[in-house]
């Protein structure tokens, strides 16, 4: 298997994987979405709420605020030694909210949440929680815990996690008259004209829509679009709860553990069984 980084930013990476199957690539995608733990508000105790939002809606909005995650300091609730429904300082983080609109209306943002651990706090400081009219007040305690995306989407560490086949575009230059119709219709600007020939640029952006093939009036079209079934382009975008490198490394560790557990589940044959 060969891996090539195509583009990398703080919260985004696009890489090319060659020499594998769609089964493995899809396994990686599903594990990232459903198995990599992230921190999110799981329980809210409303002390006072005179805003226009019902308690349940307020709790829902709080749960969907992405929180920075410290995987090394906290345990999954079901794996914590405390075995408590309330949790402990190894599997739970308490965030408080105490805001009041006095004489003027006030917009409550995510940075109004006060966390007992600065390492677990809202990714963005300007997520709107609720708008308060003069005299309205909200006081509450929120409990954040590690969880997995297969239980609820609020625990997914990514906003984008997709893969696609590596495109293959073949142009029969002996039959192509370079009319340019395929260039005009291509939504990603993959094709360009150089001299009297059609050439390709930035092939990884191709979405395999085949509009260029349909636009060609020559029968059969001198341009053909296909894909490599052992080469993939993988896009991952973090929502900020974990660094992009940590998300991928955690997913690979989880896959390795699942394979190891699967191998251990098979019975070991003894010498006597082998002789029989």
Distance between the termini: 39 Å
Task: Note the beta-strand portion.
Answer: 25-35%
Given the structure, what is the number of helices? 6
The major β-sheet equals:
4 strands, antiparallel
Q: From N to C, what is the helix and strand string? A: EEHEHEEEEEEHEEHEHH
**Widest sheet: strand ordering:** 1-2-12-9
Give the overall shape: flat
Number of strands: 12
Point out poorly predicted stretches. none
Concise summary:
This protein has 276 residues and is an alpha+beta fold. Helices cover 21% and strands 34% of the residues. The chain is built from six helices and twelve strands.
Structure description:
21% of the residues lie in helices and 34% in strands. The longest helix has 22 residues. The two termini are 39 Å apart. The chain is of the alpha+beta class and 276 residues long. α1 crosses α5. The strands form four sheets. Strands 1-2-12-9 form a four-stranded antiparallel sheet. The radius of gyration is 26 Å and the shape is flat.
